[in-house]
Amino acid sequence: MARLRRVGSVAVPGLRTSANHLRPPAAIAVLGGGNMGSGIAQACAQAGFHLRVRDVDAPALARGRALIEKMLAGAVERRKLTPARRDEVLARIEFTTDLTEAVRGTALVIEAVFEDEAVKRDLFRELAPLVGPETLVATNTSSLSVTGLAEGFPNPGRFAGLHFFFPAAINKLVEIVGGARTDPSTLSELERFSYLVRKIPITTADRAGFCVNRYFVPYLNEAARLAEESAASLATIEEVGRELFGATLGPFELMNVTGIPIAFHAETSLYRAFGPAYAPAPRLEEQFRSGKPWPWKETEVEPEKKPVVRARFLGLTFGIATRLVEEGVATAEATDRGAVVGLRRKWGPFAQLSGLGLGEGLGLVEAYARNWPGNFPVAQTLRDRAARGERTWPLSLVRVERSGPVAWVLLDRPEVLNALNSELLRQIDATFRDLETDPGLRAVILAGSSPVFAAGADIEEMSRKSLPEGIEFGFLGQRAADRIERFPAPVIALVEGYALGGGLELALAADFVVAAEGAQLGLPEVTLGIHPGMGGATRLTRLIGRARTKMLVYTGARVSAEEAFRLGVVARVLPADSARDDVAAIAGAIAANAPLAVRWVKQVIDRGLDASTASALHLEAASAGHTFGTDDRSEGMKAFLERRKPDFRGK
Ligand code: DAK
After folding, report:
1. Is 366 a catalytic residue?
2. Which of 189, 222, 239, 525 is an active site residue?
C-alpha cells in the first residue's frame, strides 16, 4: 500500500498500534507457574505469543506444565481445539528456572507469583537489572498496591497491574491498573495486548480490590454474615445470590470452588484499607479455619426469608459500586463489564440499579449504611441523581474522542463484539445528532473501542422480539444508519475484526469503509432466518452492483478485507498494526481541506446518485459554482499563489 501522507496530527484513541512491539510472535515471560501463571501463559500462547514460564524449581514447573496440559486436553475433548493446535500451543511455551533466561528479549514480563508483598518485591528487585527500558512489566496482583510494588523499580512508567481472573485461561476479564507513575501509553499498550489475548480489559485506579473484588468479595462476606446472624439458611442465601445476579453459582458454592481462604484473605485486605464495614465475618474465618466446604446443600430454602437477603445484597452492591464511580476507581460501564464478563453475572450493578429505579436503590443503600455508621459512605452522586428524580443511571455504549477537527465515534460493547442492541443503536443516532451541530468538526471516524467494528445486530435481543418489535427494531437501525449517511461532514468507517450483518450495514452508511488486514466482512442474516434490513442490501447494491451484492447476501459468506476491497465494498485495506494511525491520517487529510467544499461535494455525490444524470450534473455545476462565493475559495487560491498552506475557516 502506498504510504499515506500525514497532514496535521490527529490523535489516535487508546489501542495505539504502530509503536507497539507487543504482538505475536513476540516473547512474553510469566513469572510463576501456579494456577494463575499457567493460565495466563496458556492464554498468551493460544494467541500466538512465545512464552517463557519461570518458577523456582523443577517440581513447580512440572506442576505448571501439567496444569496447562490438562486445560488444553479439556479443550480438545470439548472440540474447542484440534490436537494439532494443542501441540502448536504447547510448543510455544518454554519452562525454565533461570530468571535471566526467562526475561531475555521479552516485550512483556507478567509477574504471577504468590500474593505476598515481600515475595513480589524481592522478585522485582531481582528483575530490575535484567529488563530493558522498553520492556513492560506487569504484576498480576489482586490486592496489593501497584504504586507500592513499583517503588524502587527503575522504570515505573512501564510498570502496571494486570489482574487476570480465575481461571485465567478461560475467564475473559482483565483489570488494567495504573500506578501513580505508570505512563498512559503503557496502559493503552496493555489494553491492546489484552484484546490480542482475547480478553476484555477494564481500567481501574490503584485502590484496594481495584474494581470487581471491591464489591464481589464483600458480597461473599455478606453471605457469611447473614448466615452468622441466622437471617436465613445457607441454601436460601445461596439461591438468592444465584437468582438476584443471574449467576450460575451462589456465594457459598463459589467459595467452595474457588477457595474459602482466598475469600477470607481478600476480605481482610479490604478491611485494612476501608475499615469495619469490610471486616471479615467471624463465620467466614471459622469456615476457613475448619478447612471444610460450606455445607449449604444440607439446609433447606426458606422462601419467606429471601427479601431480607435480597435487600442486604443489593444495598451492599449498589453502595460500593456507586462509590467506585464517585472515587474515580472505575467508570459505571467498567464496573458493569467486570460483573458480566468476570463474574459471569447476567447484569452489572448499574444495570440492576437502573432496573429497580435510583430512588429505590438509594433506599436500599441507606438502609445498609445504617448498619455501619460513618464507615459506609453513601455516594453523593447517587443521592443527587435520585433527588433530581432520575430513574436510571446512564451507561454509555458509544464513546466520543475528539482530536482537533476530527471526532472518533467508538462503539463500546466489546464483551459482545459490539453487537448492536436497541440501546446501542439509539446512542449511535443520538451521538451523530449531537455532532451535527458541532461547528469545528471536519471528519468523523466510526470504529470499535476494541479492535472489532461490530459482529451484527444483537442476536440475543433479537431472539426475544415479536413481529411488531422486529419492525420497530428495523426502523431504529435504519434511523441510525440514515443519520450517519446524512451527516454533514465525511464519516469514515474503520473495520477491524468483524463487520457482520447490521455491523456492515452501519459501516456502509459511512462515506467510505476502510478495513484492517485480517478483518472479516459479510451479511450473514439469511443464516438466521432474516435478511438485511438496515440498508445493507440497498446501499451495497448501489455500491458494488446487483450481482455481487446478491452473491454476498444469498450465501451469507464472510469475506476477507482484501476480498472486500476487490469487490468494491472497502475503499482501502490498511495494515493491522497501523490501521488506526492510517485512518487518522486520512481523516487529517480531509480535515485540512476546505470544509464547505468537502461538505457540499458530499451532498453532490449522495444526492446525485438518486437523481437523473442531467439533474446530478446540474446540481454538481451549481454547487461548485457556489463555492466561488466562499472565503475558503479565496483563501485556497490565494494560498496557492503565495506558495503557503491555506488556512480554511469553513466560510
Ligand atoms: N449478537 C449477540 N452476541 C454476539 C454477537 C451478535 N451478533 N456476535 C458475537 N456475540 C457475542 C458471543 O455470544 C460471545 O458472548 P459470550 O459467549 O462471551 O457471552 C461474544 O460476543 C464473543 O463472541 P464469540 O465467542 O462467538 O467470538 P468468536 O471470535 O469465537 O467468533 C464471530 C466471532 C463474529 C464469528 C461469532 O461471534 C459470530 O458468528 N457472531 C454472530 C455473527 C452474526 O451472525 N451476525 C449477524 C447478526 S444478524 C433488521 C435489520 C437488520 C438486522 C436485523 C433486522 N430489521 C430491519 C428488522 C441485522 C441483523 C444481523 O446483524
Report:
1. no
2. 525
Task: Give dist(CA 9, CA 11) in Å, integer.
Answer: 6
- What CATH number does residue 536 fall under? 3.90.226.10
- Cα 635 from chain centre: 44
Q: What is the pLDDT of residue 14?
A: 64
Q: Does the global pTM surpass 0.90?
A: yes
Index of the ligand 1 atom closest to the CA of residue 460: 2
- How confident is the model at residue 20, as a pLDDT? 58
Q: Write the CB contacts of 215 (distance below 8 Å, at least 6 apart in sequence).
A: 316, 317, 320, 321, 324, 335, 349
Q: Is the pLDDT at 6 greater than 60, yes or no? A: no
| DSSP 8-state symbol, 66 | H
Count CB neighbours of 73 within 10 A: 13
Residue identified by cell 415479536 is 466
Looking at the fold, whether 432 and 472 belong to one and the same domain comes out as yes
Q: How far is the CA of 419 from the centre of ligand 1 (A)?
A: 6
- 206 vs 215: CA distance, rounded Å: 15
Q: How buried is residue 577: exposed, middle or buried, by Cβ count under 10 Å (0-12/13-18/19+)?
A: middle
- Whether 122 and 267 map to the same domain: the answer is no
Burial class (CB in 10 A: 0-12, 13-18, 19+), 161: buried
Q: Is the pLDDT of residue 2 over 90?
A: no
Query: Do 582 and 624 lie in a common domain?
Result: no
Which segments within 338-477 are labelled E, that is strand? 398-403, 406-411, 443-448
Residue of 459, 496, 552 to mutate, ligand 1, most atoms within 8 A of C-beta:
459
Supply the range of the domain harboring residue 637: 593-641
Give per-residue pLDDT as tens, 79-101.
999 999 999 999 999 999 999 99
Among 581, 587, 585, 588, which Cα is nearest to 15's? 581
Cα(560)–Cα(544) distance, rounded to whole angstroms? Answer: 16
Instruction: Verify whether residue 505 is a known catalytic residue.
Output: yes
The predicted-structure confidence for 116-169, as pLDDT tens digits, reads as follows 899 999 999 999 999 988 899 999 999 899 999 999 788 999 999 999 999 999
Integer angstrom CA distances of residue 316 from 48, 229, 243, 256, 374: 41, 16, 16, 22, 15
Q: Which of 239, 243, 505, 620 is catalytic?
A: 505
558 lines ligand 1 (CB under 6 A): no
